Amino acid sequence: MSDEILVSAESLYRFYSQHCAVADLSLRLRRGEVLGLLGPTGAGKTSTLQMLSGNLAPSAGRIIINGIDLLDAPKRAKAYIGYLPERPPLYPDLTVDEYLTYCGRLHRVARLSLGAAVNEVKMRCGLTDVGRRLIGNLSKGYQQRVGIAQALIHSPLIVILDEPTVGLDPVQIREIRTLIRELAPNHGVILSTHILPEVQAICDSVQIIHAGRTVFNDSLSGLSERHGLMGLIVAFRSPPTTKELSRLAGVQAVEPLAGGRLRIVHGDTAVLETVVWASVENNWGLRELTPERSTLEQIFMDLVHNEYDTDSQASAGVQTAP
Amino acid sequence: MILTIAGTELRRMFYSPLAWAILAVVMFILGLVFLILVDNYMSTIQAQLIGVPGAPGVTDVVIAPVIFWASVIMLTVSPLQTMRALSEERQQGSLTLLTSAPLSTTELVLGKYLALLLFILVLLGLVALMPLSLSGGTNLGWGKILAGLLGLFLLLASFSAAGLYISSQTKTPLIAAMCSFGLLVFLVVLYMSGSAEGTASQLFIYLSHFGHMLSFLAGLFDSSDLVYYLLFSVAFLILTIRRLDNERLQH
Predict the structure, then answer these.
(1) How would you classify the pairing of strands A213-219 and A205-210?
(2) E strand or H helix that includes residue A6
(3) DSSP secondary-structure letter at A249?
(4) Is the Cβ of A68 closer than 8 Å to some Cβ of chain B?
(5) pTM attached to this predicted model
(6) Strand, helix or coil at A106?
(7) Predicted ipTM?
(8) A54 part of contact set with chain B, CB < 8 Å
(9) Which residues of B touch A61 (CB under 8 A)?
(10) DSSP state of A136
(11) Cβ distance B133 to B49 under 8 Å?
């Protein structure tokens, strides 16, 4: 990842009449970076990507694409962007070849290199066999791939993908993820998703959006450094004292929880085995052993769902009030 | 860039059965009209006109009505052609392809419009075959025919511009077709009300697009009529461009 900043968005706002879809959102993408926008449905991911791709004007804020202001010079800025919207923008009555050629010409790919560009992007997206078929007759997975191919045809500096793996089968998902990782070294990629493992599999940094606001923004490597400790929830028939447990190798702390459960904080998953052995040897009668969620998921759930819980409790309170 | 869009648009029109159906239906009906008019001319009118000085010829009696009929049929058919232009794209989400590409909205709209104009030219070419088929047997007033075809072209171009604008307003092609049809018929009604006795108003006649076509049919090339059609089309194109630009700003 280099320090060259490809996309920089500052305090974006977007209102749909009274409803505020995106509020004070800032974002930065470096060359070679894959940035994941993560958030529940309706968090404002799509609106953000529409703004970054120049399809939606922000109510306030600035977007700089590779040094060019997207709002001042949209034509020049858009030349650096390849965008896959939520619904791939396909013409069902064209063949894959015709469609990709058209996309290439719209993005001003030179006539001489157009054929090569179409072939390359078809190979990358696994479309070589369906080049002469009508897009309308392709399966959803293939249509999605054509949509991705369309975003890559002019090998743009910045690739913006709105839920790229939606509707694909597991094998295709893996292929697309590999493709995105391949793009990373020379491009910058922004993708939105609501699938956590996807972010962990392909992203360098993650920005969690909830109700239009950024609630978390960090690189994945920084994330694991800062939150390197993991938890293990255990319950025993005849529980040992916390001291006994803390003496086990690898255990860093033990916290009692409600219902007789204990949380063992550790830095290494080998502790699972140690706990099970100790339980057998000392006849503690292990009844439950649950590794805590991976850190990103934990953060996501904490940030997003706790708020939901308080919201629903608050509304429940209103309903029961006389 | 405009040519790239227009080329692909035109190709897509002919990939769908709609363009072929439109051409087939229009030509079938016009062919019948033409046949009836020629038959009528041969059997009755020709005999009556013999010896009358300055009598109208076959161009006035047969060709001009055919062109007029073509414009009436296209009044109902052209909304079907224009409805797809933007609202269908929006319905299937493909408009994003054009709005994310490095092009201005003006290029986008002009590309779409040019494709519609090219389709009209194809239709006009087919209509022009009818007088051409008579040219072997008689002398035709080619100037009049060309003026008539030019009038028809301008009229259809104005239909398309209006249809394109209405197509930019909605996501549902059928609503776009219905509304453009409504607008076009409204302009005809305006002409009728303008030429009705008592309430006649030159303003209404001026605003209606059909009135300007009639002088072309009579073989008159009046630059004010040309200007009317140009203004009409350009105004609707500008409205379309503004509408699409606005879409980014408001939802």
Answers:
(1) antiparallel
(2) strand A5-16
(3) T
(4) no
(5) 0.83
(6) helix
(7) 0.86
(8) yes
(9) none
(10) G
(11) no
- Number of CB atoms found within 10 A of residue A72's CB: 11
Dump pLDDT digits (tens) for A151-207.
Answer: 999 989 999 999 988 878 888 888 888 888 888 888 899 999 888 888 888 888 889
Q: Is A243 exposed, middle or buried (0-12, 13-18, 19+ CB in 10 A)?
A: exposed
B195 residue type, one letter: S
Residues of chain B found within 8 Å of residue A53, distances taken between Cβ atoms: 100
For the record, the structure tokens of A222 come out as 């920084």
- Which token pair is A161? 């993908």
Pure H helices in B41-102: 46-49, 58, 64-83, 89-91, 95-100
Q: Is B249 in Cβ contact with A79 (below 8 Å)?
A: no
Give the model confidence (pLDDT) of B116-126 as tens digits. 999 999 999 99
pLDDT confidence of residue A226: 55
- Other CB atoms closer than 10 Å to residue A120's CB: what's the count? 15
Q: How many angstroms separate the CA atoms of A192 and A175, rounded?
A: 17
**3-state SS assignment for residue A312:** helix
Per DSSP, helices labelled H in A35-90 are 45-52, 74-78
Segment (H or E) for A265? strand A262-266
B88: nearest CA partner in chain A: A91
For residue A273, the tally of other CB atoms under 10 A from its CB is: 10
Q: State the virtual CA torsion across A271, A277, A278, A279 in degrees, nearest 10.
A: 110
Q: Residues of B numbered 127-146 whose beta carbons fall under 8 angstroms of chain A's beta carbons: which are they?
A: none
Of chain A, the percentage scoring pLDDT greater than 90 comes to 31
Secondary structure (DSSP) of A165-195 = TTT--HHHHHHHHHHHHHHTTTSEEEEEES-
Let me know: does A205 contact A219? Beta carbons within 8 Å.
yes
Q: How far apart are CA A59 and CA A17, in angstroms?
A: 11
Dihedral pair phi/psi, residue A236, rounded to 5°: -125, 155
Is B97–A56 a contact, with Cβ atoms under 8 angstroms apart? no
Whether residue B22 contacts residue B74, with contact meaning beta carbons closer than 8 Å, is answered with no
Task: With CB atoms and an 8 Å threshold, state whether A93 touches B16.
Answer: yes
Q: What does the alpha-carbon distance between residue B14 and residue B28 come to, in Å, rounded to a whole number?
A: 18
